[in-house]
Write a structure and sequence with these properties.
Radius of gyration: 15 Å
Number of helices: 3
Shape: globular
Structural class: alpha+beta
Strand order of the largest sheet: 1-11-10-9-2-6-3
Order of helices and strands: EHEHEEEEHEEEEE
Length: about 140
Protein backbone atom coordinates (compact mmCIF):
# COMPACT_ATOMS: atom_id res chain seq x y z
CA UNK A 1 0.00 0.00 0.00
CA UNK A 2 1.14 3.52 -0.72
CA UNK A 3 -0.24 6.84 0.41
CA UNK A 4 -1.90 8.89 -2.30
CA UNK A 5 -3.10 12.48 -2.52
CA UNK A 6 -6.46 13.45 -4.00
CA UNK A 7 -5.99 16.97 -5.29
CA UNK A 8 -8.80 17.20 -7.83
CA UNK A 9 -11.79 15.48 -9.40
CA UNK A 10 -9.67 13.92 -12.17
CA UNK A 11 -7.44 12.07 -9.70
CA UNK A 12 -10.52 10.94 -7.78
CA UNK A 13 -12.12 9.53 -10.95
CA UNK A 14 -8.85 7.75 -11.86
CA UNK A 15 -8.89 6.06 -8.45
CA UNK A 16 -12.52 5.02 -8.96
CA UNK A 17 -11.69 3.62 -12.40
CA UNK A 18 -8.89 1.56 -10.86
CA UNK A 19 -11.21 0.19 -8.15
CA UNK A 20 -14.34 -0.47 -10.19
CA UNK A 21 -13.70 -3.95 -11.59
CA UNK A 22 -11.40 -5.02 -8.76
CA UNK A 23 -13.70 -4.38 -5.77
CA UNK A 24 -15.74 -7.13 -4.16
CA UNK A 25 -16.50 -5.45 -0.82
CA UNK A 26 -16.95 -1.91 0.40
CA UNK A 27 -16.81 -0.81 4.02
CA UNK A 28 -18.14 2.57 5.05
CA UNK A 29 -17.64 3.83 8.61
CA UNK A 30 -19.88 6.63 9.79
CA UNK A 31 -19.33 8.39 13.15
CA UNK A 32 -22.53 8.94 15.14
CA UNK A 33 -22.20 12.72 14.84
CA UNK A 34 -21.83 12.65 11.04
CA UNK A 35 -24.66 13.24 8.58
CA UNK A 36 -25.39 9.89 6.94
CA UNK A 37 -27.11 11.21 3.83
CA UNK A 38 -24.00 11.27 1.60
CA UNK A 39 -23.24 7.60 2.28
CA UNK A 40 -26.80 6.32 2.08
CA UNK A 41 -27.38 8.16 -1.16
CA UNK A 42 -25.07 5.50 -2.64
CA UNK A 43 -28.08 3.15 -2.35
CA UNK A 44 -26.46 -0.15 -1.44
CA UNK A 45 -28.95 -1.22 1.22
CA UNK A 46 -29.88 -4.43 -0.60
CA UNK A 47 -26.17 -5.46 -0.62
CA UNK A 48 -25.56 -4.95 3.12
CA UNK A 49 -23.65 -7.85 4.71
CA UNK A 50 -22.78 -6.41 8.11
CA UNK A 51 -23.70 -3.46 10.29
CA UNK A 52 -21.83 -3.17 13.56
CA UNK A 53 -20.52 -0.71 16.13
CA UNK A 54 -16.74 -0.38 15.94
CA UNK A 55 -13.80 1.47 17.43
CA UNK A 56 -11.26 0.06 14.95
CA UNK A 57 -11.34 -0.19 11.17
CA UNK A 58 -8.93 0.00 8.26
CA UNK A 59 -6.38 2.71 9.07
CA UNK A 60 -8.11 3.98 12.22
CA UNK A 61 -8.50 3.20 15.91
CA UNK A 62 -10.63 5.22 18.33
CA UNK A 63 -11.87 4.95 21.90
CA UNK A 64 -15.50 4.06 22.44
CA UNK A 65 -18.00 2.54 20.05
CA UNK A 66 -19.30 5.72 18.48
CA UNK A 67 -19.01 4.62 14.86
CA UNK A 68 -21.02 2.27 12.69
CA UNK A 69 -19.34 0.11 10.05
CA UNK A 70 -21.44 -0.97 7.06
CA UNK A 71 -19.98 -3.73 4.90
CA UNK A 72 -21.43 -4.26 1.44
CA UNK A 73 -21.02 -7.07 -1.05
CA UNK A 74 -20.56 -5.67 -4.55
CA UNK A 75 -21.85 -7.66 -7.51
CA UNK A 76 -21.55 -6.32 -11.06
CA UNK A 77 -24.85 -4.40 -10.96
CA UNK A 78 -24.33 -2.80 -7.55
CA UNK A 79 -20.72 -2.00 -8.42
CA UNK A 80 -21.82 -0.19 -11.59
CA UNK A 81 -24.43 1.76 -9.63
CA UNK A 82 -21.98 2.61 -6.83
CA UNK A 83 -19.18 3.83 -9.05
CA UNK A 84 -21.54 5.83 -11.26
CA UNK A 85 -22.87 7.57 -8.15
CA UNK A 86 -19.38 8.16 -6.74
CA UNK A 87 -18.21 9.70 -10.01
CA UNK A 88 -21.06 12.23 -9.79
CA UNK A 89 -20.05 13.11 -6.22
CA UNK A 90 -17.32 15.33 -4.94
CA UNK A 91 -14.06 13.53 -4.11
CA UNK A 92 -13.82 11.89 -0.67
CA UNK A 93 -11.70 14.94 0.28
CA UNK A 94 -9.28 17.30 -1.45
CA UNK A 95 -5.62 17.61 -0.47
CA UNK A 96 -4.26 21.11 -0.96
CA UNK A 97 -1.53 23.37 0.33
CA UNK A 98 -1.59 26.89 1.68
CA UNK A 99 0.94 29.30 3.07
CA UNK A 100 0.67 29.78 6.83
CA UNK A 101 3.11 31.91 8.75
CA UNK A 102 5.43 31.92 5.75
CA UNK A 103 5.47 28.11 5.36
CA UNK A 104 3.74 25.89 2.84
CA UNK A 105 1.43 23.60 4.79
CA UNK A 106 -0.67 20.61 3.71
CA UNK A 107 -4.37 21.11 4.37
CA UNK A 108 -7.56 19.18 3.70
CA UNK A 109 -10.79 20.44 2.21
CA UNK A 110 -13.72 18.41 3.47
CA UNK A 111 -16.42 17.51 0.98
CA UNK A 112 -19.94 16.12 1.30
CA UNK A 113 -18.45 12.94 2.81
CA UNK A 114 -17.19 14.79 5.89
CA UNK A 115 -15.78 12.22 8.34
CA UNK A 116 -17.12 9.13 6.56
CA UNK A 117 -14.30 6.64 5.90
CA UNK A 118 -14.20 4.19 2.99
CA UNK A 119 -12.34 0.94 2.36
CA UNK A 120 -12.50 -1.13 -0.83
CA UNK A 121 -11.51 -4.81 -0.80
CA UNK A 122 -10.64 -7.08 -3.70
CA UNK A 123 -12.01 -10.53 -4.50
CA UNK A 124 -9.40 -12.25 -2.33
CA UNK A 125 -10.11 -9.93 0.61
CA UNK A 126 -7.05 -7.75 0.00
CA UNK A 127 -7.31 -4.04 0.76
CA UNK A 128 -7.30 -2.02 -2.47
CA UNK A 129 -7.94 1.46 -1.11
CA UNK A 130 -8.98 3.15 2.12
CA UNK A 131 -9.46 6.64 3.50
CA UNK A 132 -9.24 8.45 6.79
CA UNK A 133 -11.37 11.07 5.16
CA UNK A 134 -11.37 14.03 7.56
CA UNK A 135 -7.56 13.85 7.80
CA UNK A 136 -7.16 13.73 4.01
CA UNK A 137 -5.38 10.40 4.17
CA UNK A 138 -5.78 7.70 1.54
CA UNK A 139 -3.82 4.54 0.82
CA UNK A 140 -4.03 2.55 -2.40
CA UNK A 141 -2.72 -0.80 -3.60
CA UNK A 142 0.82 -0.84 -4.92
CA UNK A 143 -0.59 -2.08 -8.23
CA UNK A 144 -2.17 1.35 -8.84
Amino acid sequence: MKQIRIENKEQYVQILDFLKDKSKYLEIVIPDYEEKEAAFRLDLTNRLLTEKRVNRWQGTKTTGLFNTLYKYDLDKESSNTLFKSLKKSEPFFINTQEIRFGYLEDTVIETEFGHIDFAFYGFSGDVLFYTTTHEGIAFISDSY
